[in-house]
Design brief:
There is one protein chain. The chain is mainly alpha-helical. Helix content is 48%, strand content 4%. It is built from 17 helices and 5 strands. The chain has helices at residues 7-17, 28-39, 69-74, 97-115, 125-135, 148-173, 193-200, 206-220, 238-243, 270-276, 315-326, 333-344, 348-356, 367-375, 394-405, 407-417, 421-449, and strands spanning 280-284, 298-300, 303-307, 309-311, 360-362.
């Protein structure tokens, strides 16, 4: 079992063993100078791939672990591997000379600024934090064969690069710098926020710098609504911070449809819910003044409201990593949502129905490819679906099954969505003929009476 080497433990140990804090003031002129230096660098820039907690007690402190090998074998290993900027020790071998030089420039820039306010600047800060950082990695090979000096240097470069990345975003550029577009969602592409907190040293938490741009990026990808959120109080690393915004706000009500004798099974396909449960699939539109996320799925009076899911090259990577992170937690809302969508949209016919309803938005060549991605989304994922604490959509599954078992709903669904137009037309003609015969018989009887 993985040992919890969380953020609070690091903070307490640091306060006991380290007394040196470094204050760095990054003003706009200095940051502009750094940007010009980076832009005029002769290093060639590769074209990056663009990528589009708060109340969870059991997610308050999350150790940094590698994705288990079974998931890596079943799901594409590329989903858990950084493509542009590796952060932390797990994937240092995938770094490039170009990005390492950018990290060195970032560390040199902050070192020069820190020396103006603190004797020695950043010298020796990471060496004191290095033993505590090792405790945050539960995998035995977290730092591999790296010496304390090498790991301290790596953490310093990563922390300075990320700090300037988010400061640059918050300072008004309006868009993240290209080299880090693709990195924040990688489960094994992270470093503890405690390390970056100690580098900055000021009164402003590093979470305040990172939360806003990550929130905006998730909003652009339609994962969450436009309503501003407060900074999550406790997050151990970047992926943990991303997960803090994925919280269902509209929990399905526990109804009498849930029976202790009936277990929760697989979700039906979208076309099956339309035909056998007489359910209308509707797109839930975010309201700017309401906090909501893509997890807010709700069944209301025969209408299944589902927020739009935009499929891009990074959608599956984000969802895969969030599900892998939730394996360390008791509540697993993202996993429950992914199980629902993967079984709801597992064929091209289902994707077509969802796309026409505005629930699935993709720019791939055809619906068949999207359905294959949905069908394989939860390969290797195991979850106790009968546990309401883990599966927040359990009540809705039972409500839909109750509708599927209703003969009246099955008949109405068959009539509305069965596409049996010839039979439906013949049925209507028969009803008209019967009505005419009844009317004729009625008038014949009343006429004789007179």
């Amino acid at each position: 079992m993985a040992r919890d080497g969380g953020l609070s433990h690091v903070d307490n140990e640091f306060d006991k063993n380290c007394s040196k804090f470094v204050t760095i003031e990054v003003d706009s002129s200095a940051l502009s100078t750094w940007n010009r230096k980076m832009q005029h660098s002769k290093m060639l820039s590769p074209t990056p791939t663009r990528w589009d907690c708060q109340k969870e007690a059991d997610m308050g402190s999350v150790p940094i672990t590698k994705v288990r090998e079974q998931l890596r074998r079943v799901i594409d290993d590329d989903s858990y591997t950084p493509h542009c900027v590796p952060i932390g020790p797990y994937h240092q071998s995938r770094s490039s000379q170009w990005i390492e030089k950018r990290k060195q420039c970032s560390a040199g820039f902050l070192q020069s600024l820190s020396e103006e306010h603190t004797v020695g600047g950043l010298t020796g800060v990471m060496e004191k934090l290095e033993p505590l950082a090792r405790e945050c990695y539960t995998s035995g090979d977290g730092f591999g064969n790296m010496t304390p000096e090498q790991s301290a240097s790596m953490m310093l470069h990563d922390a300075c690069y990320l700090l300037l990345f988010f400061v640059d975003y918050v300072s008004g550029n309006g868009a993240p710098p290209a080299p880090a577009d693709d990195d924040d969602e990688r489960l094994v592409n992270r470093n503890t926020l405690a390390i970056h907190e100690r580098v900055t040293g000021g009164n402003t938490s590093v979470l305040d710098y990172m939360a806003m741009p990550i929130q905006e990026l998730l909003q652009m990808q339609l994962f969450i609504s436009r309503k501003p959120r407060q900074t999550p109080p406790m997050c151990s690393h970047l992926l943990h911070l991303v997960h803090a915004y994925f919280r269902p706000m509209l929990l399905p009500a526990v109804s009498t449809a849930m029976s202790s004798d009936t277990g929760t099974g697989r979700w039906r396909r979208a076309v099956e819910y339309r035909r056998y449960a007489n359910v209308q699939l509707m797109r839930r539109v975010y309201q700017d003044d309401v906090e909501s996320s893509v997890l807010d799925v709700q069944l209301e009076r025969g209408r299944l409201w589902i927020p739009r899911l935009r499929i891009t090259s990074n959608t599956w990577t984000i969802l895969h990593n969030l599900m892998a992170l939730e394996e360390q937690a008791h509540r697993r809302p993202v996993t429950a949502y992914c199980l629902f969508m993967s079984q709801l949209a597992c064929t091209s016919e289902d994707v077509q129905v969802l796309r026409r309803a505005g629930i699935v938005d993709h720019f791939l060549d055809n619906d068949e490819q999207v359905s294959k991605d949905f069908a394989g989304l939860c390969n290797g994922v195991v979850m106790e679906v009968d546990d309401l604490e883990r599966n927040y959509l359990k009540p809705m599954w039972h409500q839909l099954e109750k509708r599927c078992d209703s003969r009246a709903q099955r008949f109405m669904g068959w009539f509305r969505h069965g596409h049996n137009w010839e039979i439906a037309a013949a049925f209507l003609v028969a009803l008209i003929v019967i009505a005419c015969q009844v009317t004729q018989t009625f008038y014949a009887i009343t006429g004789r009476g007179r």
